[in-house]
Design goal:
With 723 residues, the chain is an alpha/beta fold. It has 28 helices and 21 strands. Strands 13-2-3-4-5-8-19 form a 7-stranded mixed β-sheet. A 3-stranded mixed β-sheet has the order 1-14-15. The longest helix has 29 residues.
Length: 723
C-alpha cells in the first residue's frame, strides 16, 4: 500500500483473503473474505486515516495544503456541504468485499504527500465528485451524491480519481487522432501522441491514409517507407512520454484491411518478427469493411489499394472512401496502384495473430457507419474499441500549423451499475443525473495541446454512458448468461438507457438553446432515427423479464413519438451518448462483474505487485447462484456476441467485446469441431468474427486465450478508458 506503518508480515487480511481459495468441506469459505475485509479496515485503514475534529477543519486542511481545489468548494454555502455530507453518512456505505476496499484505498483514495496516510474514505471521494460535477447546483450535487454512494453510477477512473484534486490529471484520458498522407501530418501526429501520453492518455491513431511501402514520392519510384516505420516512431514516443515513469504510454494504431501494408502491419506484432520492425507495446487494430467478409466468403482474391492513388483519384483521404461501395470501380481504375492477395489468406493471418497475441482488434466499419445517426464518417476507434464517432481530416502546412483544422475525439465515459440501477427509486431520474455529470466533463475538457481534439469536443459535446455488472445481475436473479431471458433483459435495459439519455440530452439542449454541431444533418433531426422504436416493441418479451422490470417505466410507442417530436423541435446537446467500455479495478470497487461479459472464475485470482495474490469472489456467490456463474472460457462465444448484439442495437457508439477462448476447446462447445481437432484453430476465430459481423457487432476487442499451461494470452487491461 506504500504506507510506512504497515508491515505486510504483521497483518492478517492477506492470509484471510487467500483462504477463500481453500475449500472447506467442499464449500467456498466466503466468510474468510468478510473476515479479511474487517481486518483490512481495522489493521490498515483505521490507523492510517487522518482524522479531523470537524468537516470545516478537514476541508480547510485539504485546501490549504494543496490537496483540493478551492474553486469547486466556494461554489456552495458551507451549510449545504454539511447537508451533503450528512446525507452521505446516513447512507451508511460499506464495501462488500476485501478486494473492493483494497482497490479503493490502493488506487483511488487521496493520500498525504509522503504517501503515509489516507486523506479520504469512499464517502469523501463521492462527496468531492458530487460537489465538483454539480458545479454549484445544490440539487444536482445531492442527486449525484445519491447515485454514487448507492453505486448506481460510476464515473470513469480519470474523472472519479481526479475530481476536486488540486494536483490532478485530466478528467478524460482517451483520445482518437488521424494522420494524413504527408510528412507534416505525420510529424504533427507524433507530437500529438507525445502530448496526449504525457497527460495520461490512451491514444488511438489511424495510419490508413499513409501511402504504402514502395509507393512513389514526387514521381520518385519506390520511395515511401510505409506504415511500419511510423508505428515504430509512435511506439518509441509512447515509451518516452510515460508520465515521468508512472505509467507506460499506451496507444493503438489502426490500418484498413485493404491497405497494401496490411501483411507487414500484422507481422510487426509477431513474436518472431525482426527486432528492427517488431512492435512490442503498441496495440493493433484492423478496419474491416463489409467487402472483405464478402471476398473471404467467396474464397476470392482481393485487391489492396495504395492510399496515395486513391486520394489522387477521389480527392479525399483513403479513410473517407466507402470501399465496399467503390471496390469494383477502384479495381477497374488503372490510375489506382493495387496488388492482389487471397482474402482467406489474410483472414488466416489475422486469426494467427489473434491466437498468438490477442491482436488485432476488429472494427466493422460499415456496420458502424450504417448505424451512425450523425452526418459524417466514422473511420477508426480508440484504445479499447468502444468509441465510434465521426471525424474530419485536417490539412497541416510546413509550419506545422493548420491550413484547415478537422476534428478528432476525446472520450468522456461513465458507467451504470446494472444491479443497483435496477433498484433505483427512479430509473429515468438516475440516468438524467448521470448524463449531467458527464456533460460537466465534456464542457470542461479543453485539450489545447491537440487543437483538433479540442475543436471536436467543443463541437460535439460527446459522452459515453455504459454499463457494468450484467453477469452479476443475471446470476443474482438465477438467469443463465446468454439465455433468451438474458438477451431479453439486455435489450430492454439498453433500450431504457437510450431512451433516458435521449430525454436528458434533449432537455439540456432546450435549457441551453444549443445542440451539437450539424444536428440539423442528423437522422435525429429528420426523425428517421426513431422509426424502429415506433415500428417495433422493445419492451420485455418474456414473463421473467417483465417481472424484473415491474415498477420501472417502459416507454410505449406514444412515448417514443413524443420524444421524437421534442428532439426534432429542440435538438440534442450531445452528438454521442452511449458506449460500453471495459471495466478494471473500478468494477471491483462496485462489487460487481466487469462490463457485459461473463466472469472468468467464480473466485478470481489477481496478482498484485509487491503483495502477491488476492482473491475476489463473484458477486452474490452462493449455492443458489453457483450454477449461473459459468466461466467465460467455458461459454459459447456466440452467447456473448448475442448479448452484445442485443445491447448494440440501442447503443449509438460501440462496446468493448472480448472473446474468451481455450487452447483446448471443451467438448461439445462448438458443433463445427466434431470430427476435427479439439485445439483452437484459426478457423474457430474466423467463424466467430464472421458471426459477430452478421449479428451487427461493430467492434471486437481482445481475443483472450487460456492456454493448456494455465496462462492467458491477450489478457491486458486498458488503463485509459477503463471505467
Amino acid at each position: 500500500m506504500g504506507l510506512k506503518q504497515i508491515d505486510v508480515d504483521q497483518v492478517s487480511y492477506y492470509d484471510l483473503n487467500n483462504e477463500i481459495n481453500i475449500p472447506v468441506d467442499g464449500q467456498i469459505p466466503l466468510k474468510k473474505d468478510q473476515a479479511a475485509l474487517t481486518a483490512f479496515l481495522a489493521e490498515n485503514v483505521k490507523p492510517n486515516l487522518l482524522t479531523f475534529s470537524s468537516l470545516k477543519e478537514k476541508l480547510n486542511y485539504l485546501i490549504e495544503n494543496n490537496y483540493y481545489e478551492n474553486g469547486f468548494i466556494e461554489k456552495y454555502d458551507f451549510s449545504f456541504i454539511e447537508k451533503l455530507y450528512d446525507f452521505l453518512i446516513k447512507a451508511d456505505f460499506h464495501f462488500k468485499t476485501f478486494m473492493a476496499a483494497y482497490k479503493f484505498y490502493a488506487q483511488y483514495a487521496l493520500k498525504t504527500n509522503d504517501n503515509n496516510q489516507y486523506l479520504e474514505n469512499f464517502t469523501d471521494r463521492v462527496a468531492a465528485n458530487a460537489l465538483y460535477f454539480g458545479d454549484g447546483d445544490e440539487k444536482l450535487a445531492l442527486k449525484l451524491a445519491d447515485e454514487m454512494i448507492h453505486q448506481r453510477y460510476q464515473p470513469a477512473t480519470p474523472s472519479f480519481l481526479n475530481a476536486g484534486r488540486k494536483r490532478r490529471g485530466e478528467l478524460v484520458s482517451c483520445f482518437l487522432i488521424q494522420i494524413t498522407d504527408d510528412m507534416n501530418s505525420i510529424g504533427r501526429g507524433i507530437n500529438s501522441a507525445l502530448q496526449l501520453s504525457r497527460i495520461g492518455g490512451g491514444v488511438g491513431i489511424t495510419l490508413s491514409n499513409l501511402r504504402a511501402a514502395g509507393a512513389p514520392i514526387k514521381d520518385i519510384q519506390n520511395a515511401a517507407s510505409g506504415v511500419v516505420p511510423v508505428m515504430k516512431l509512435l511506439e518509441d514516443s509512447f515509451s518516452y512520454s510515460n508520465q515521468l515513469g508512472q505509467r507506460q504510454g499506451a496507444g493503438v494504431v489502426y490500418l484498413n484491411v485493404f491497405h497494401p501494408d496490411i501483411i507487414a502491419f500484422l507481422a510487426a506484432k509477431r513474436e518472431n518478427a525482426d527486432e528492427k520492425v517488431r512492435i512490442k507495446t503498441l496495440s493493433l487494430g484492423v478496419i474491416v469493411p463489409d467487402k472483405f467478409y464478402e471476398l473471404a466468403q467467396q474464397d476470392a482474391e482481393m485487391y489492396l489499394f495504395d492510399p496515395w492513388g486513391v486520394e489522387r483519384e477521389y480527392g479525399k483521404p483513403f479513410s473517407y472512401i466507402d470501399i465496399t461501395k467503390e471496390y469494383d470501380r477502384m479495381v477497374a481504375n488503372p490510375n489506382i496502384p493495387k496488388k492482389k492477395i487471397k482474402a482467406r489468406d489474410l483472414e488466416t493471418e489475422i486469426s494467427k495473430l489473434q491466437q498468438e497475441s490477442g491482436y488485432p482488434y476488429i472494427i466493422n466499419i460499415d456496420t458502424a457507419n450504417r448505424a451512425n445517426p450523425v452526418a459524417g464518417k466514422i473511420i477508426m476507434s480508440n484504445l479499447c474499441s468502444e468509441i465510434l464517432q465521426v471525424q474530419r481530416p485536417s490539412t497541416i502546412n510546413n509550419q506545422q500549423n493548420y491550413d484547415e483544422m478537422g476534428t478528432d475525439i476525446s472520450c468522456n465515459l461513465g458507467s451504470t451499475n446494472i444491479v443497483n440501477l435496477m433498484a433505483s427509486p427512479n430509473f429515468g431520474s438516475s440516468v438524467e443525473t448521470m448524463v449531467r455529470a458527464l456533460t460537466f466533463v465534456t464542457d470542461h475538457s479543453d485539450i489545447d495541446v491537440v487543437p483538433s481534439i479540442q475543436k471536436g469536443n467543443h463541437l460535439a459535446h460527446t459522452i459515453g454512458l455504459g454499463a457494468m455488472g450484467l453477469h452479476a445481475f443475471l446470476a443474482k436473479n438465477q438467469i443463465h448468461y446468454g439465455s433468451p431471458e438474458a438477451i431479453d433483459f439486455t435489450s430492454v435495459y439498453f433500450m431504457l438507457l437510450n431512451y433516458w439519455t435521449l430525454k436528458a440530452s434533449n432537455q439540456i439542449a432546450r435549457e441551453r438553446q444549443e445542440t451539437f454541431a450539424d444536428f440539423a444533418q442528423s437522422s435525429y433531426a429528420d426523425g428517421s432515427y426513431f422509426d424502429k422504436y415506433l415500428q417495433h416493441n422493445y419492451g420485455p418479451q418474456t414473463q421473467r423479464i417483465s417481472e424484473l422490470f415491474a415498477g420501472i417505466f417502459i416507454p410505449t410507442t406514444a412515448d417514443w413519438a413524443e420524444l421524437k417530436k421534442n428532439v426534432m423541435q429542440d435538438g440534442l446537446y450531445h452528438q454521442n451518448r452511449m458506449a460500453v467500455a471495459p471495466n478494471g479495478s473500478i468494477s471491483y470497487i462496485n462489487d460487481t462483474t466487469a462490463s457485459l461479459h461473463p466472469i472468468i472464475n467464480r473466485i478470481e485470482e489477481r496478482q498484485e505487485r509487491k503483495i502477491g495474490k488476492i482473491y475476489y469472489p463473484a458477486p452474490y456467490l452462493s449455492n443458489k447462484t453457483l450454477p449461473y456463474y459459468q466461466s467465460a472460457y467455458d461459454t459459447d462465444m456466440r452467447k456473448v456476441i448475442d448479448t452484445y448484439a442485443a445491447a448494440q442495437q440501442h447503443v449509438d457508439q460501440g462496446m468493448s467485446l472480448t472473446l474468451f477462448m481455450r487452447s483446448t476447446i471443451p467438448t461439445g462447445l462448438y458443433e463445427w469441431k466434431k470430427g476435427r481437432t479439439d485445439k483452437m484453430t484459426t478457423r474457430d476465430l474466423s467463424i466467430l468474427r464472421n458471426y459477430a459481423h452478421n449479428k451487427g457487432i461493430k467492434s471486437v476487442y481482445y481475443v483472450r486465450t487460456f492456454t493448456d499451461d494455465q496462462t492467458e494470452v491477450g489478457a491486458n487491461e486498458c488503463e485509459s478508458c477503463v471505467i
